[in-house]
Amino acid sequence: METDDSHSSDSLSFFNDHLQESSKRKSGSRIILALDIPHRKETRNLLNDSIGVLDKVSDYVCAVKINFHLIIPLSLGELSKLNQEAHSKSLLSIADIKLNDIANTNEVATSYLWDCGFDGVIVNPFVGFKGGLDVVYETAHSLGKGVITLSYMSHPGADEGYGLEMKNGSSTYEIMLHRAIEWGSDGVILGATRSDKIRHARSVLPKDIKIISPGSGAQGGDPVASLKAGADYLVYGRSIVSAVEARESARQIFETLKTPPA
Fold first, then answer.
1. What is the pTM of this model?
2. 59/29 Cα distance (integer angstroms)
3. DSSP string covering 171-183
4. Which of 93, 101, 181, 262 has its CA 20 to 30 A from that of 111?
């Protein structure tokens, strides 16, 4: 399989080591919390409410993924406080912005994220490496941060992009996996709604590139099938954040996943 550029990385960052350590501290939890607080007109209490969710569920998750739900309305100072709170609970924080721009913009954006204390960032490999994501990988890994690339998202419309077939018979999805290997990604995003793709990815990717699978719960993905197929971590959002009892919901999910799949 060929792509427009190949830029291998000699070693990955310490991100996955830290994520594994966090998982061990949380009794082997492989749950990453998507802290997707629903939109509200008044955001005065948004930070405190977000911290409140972390307080309730931190025993059952190993990391927190922060999306535009919070990155847009919160200030840099508030995001720093949120990340400090996550770190105080032995949780890693991942900025889910699916970064997809030229190098200068990517460098500025991630510099702010690192200043706020994020441990990793999700990027979109469609933009390419040279003059695009090259600076993200170089800087992130020099700081011990993680870079996670999209491979196949969980929503139905993802087929329109990641499922496209090339003239040589390969798919966009396979190219994304190849780029993750060549560029030195710490992990790939592969929807829990696509266990067949997870199984294939696990057979292709080296073990030090982790498969992170969103889409269980509200989107209908099968978490057990995803783990059996080779997913390393599962992302849960609405089924925890929007639950009447967030802690109890997180506990129930944790208990369901506690026994490793056969």
1. 0.91
2. 9
3. BHHHHHHHHHHHH
4. 181
Q: Cα separation of 24 and 86, whole Å?
A: 16
- CA dist., res. 10 & res. 164, Å (int): 30
Closest CA to 134 of 147, 118, 144: 147
Which residues are the active-site residues? 98
Q: pLDDT per residue over 170-218, tens digit each?
A: 888 899 999 999 999 999 999 888 889 999 999 999 999 999 999 887 6
CATH for 15-257 is: 3.20.20.70
